[in-house]
Specification:
With 118 residues, the chain is of the alpha+beta class. It has helices at residues 7-25, 30-39, 99-117; strands at residues 46-53, 57-64, 68-75, 84-89. The protein starts with 6 loop residues before the first helix and ends with a helix.
Amino acid sequence: MKLRGTLTEQSFRKELQASKKHLFNDVSMRRFLNTLKQTCPAMKTAYTLYWIPEQGEDIITFLVDMDYVVTIELDRYNHTIAPIVSVDPIESLHTGLSKINQIKIVVALDLAKKDLER
C-alpha cells in the first residue's frame, strides 16, 4: 500500500506522533516503556497501534522500530504482577486487517522509517 497524503493518513500521522511523545515523555507510560526496553533492548522508536483498556489492566500493541509488534498487558492496580508480553514479526500484522487498519500500519511504518534514518 502506498501513502497518498489523504486526510485519514494525516489523522493517523498526528495520532501516532502523539502516541510516541506520550510513550517516551509521560510518567504514566513509564511501565510500558520499561517493559518495551527490557523486551527489545535495541529499540530506537515505538508507536502505539492499539490500546484496549480493560477493567483491571491495559493492553497496548506497539510497533517497535520497523521489525516487531509487541503487545503488553499490564495490571493497572497491582504493579507487582509481571506484565504479559508477546512479540511478533511485523509481517504478522498484515493478515486479516481492515483497510483502515492497513493504512494506520503503513503510516506507522513510514514514521518509524524516518525515525530510524535520523
